[in-house]
TrEMBL record:
It holds the Pfam family DUF1456. Residues 169-180 have a biased composition (Basic residues). InterPro entries: YehS-like. Residues 161-201 are annotated as: Disordered. This is DUF1456 family protein. Signal peptide: none annotated.
Amino acid sequence: MNHNDILRRLRYALRLDDTATIAIFGLVDYDMEKDYLSMLMKKEDEPGFMLCRDKILSLFLDALIIQKRGKQEGAEPVVLKGSERLTNNDILRKIRIAMSYRDDDMLAILKLANFRLSKGELNAFFRKPEHRNYKECGDQVVRNLLKGMVVKYRPDSAKTTIMPVTKAPKPRKPAQKPVKKPQPAPANEETNSVWGKVKPK
């Protein structure tokens, strides 16, 4: 799961079109071009795909925090340098802040994606790396959180009904009536003829 997937799924869950997404980037003074955004939204096997850098996803999440909660005076978004990386723990934390999620909210959203997690396991993702209870967040947790957000905010699109494939019954051939063979007349009975009744000899 790369940053393109996260950006794409987050946009989908929150119903953010290109105009709204570009406006959100503007909240952190980043001039996102529509053509560049289009390349980020492509899948890896599509022509024109461009990998989303850690810096871009971090800026978007920081801008989402401002869009959802307002800008705090004196707090400036941290622009990641080329060597700095955005971890899954960072992504989880920024989504939590932007959406004002509490522990129970996040656990409930994960449950919508049929993903079970205890409160202790969740809190371990928000510890500092040097804390003894710190735990690295895997792709599975982020993926299921975004999946749960789609179920929560876009319930209609999250429901997919797959009809079972049934084979059409083969047409039955019409039953053929048995052909009755003409029975020879008994020897002791008169036989009908165009010449009249003829007695057997």
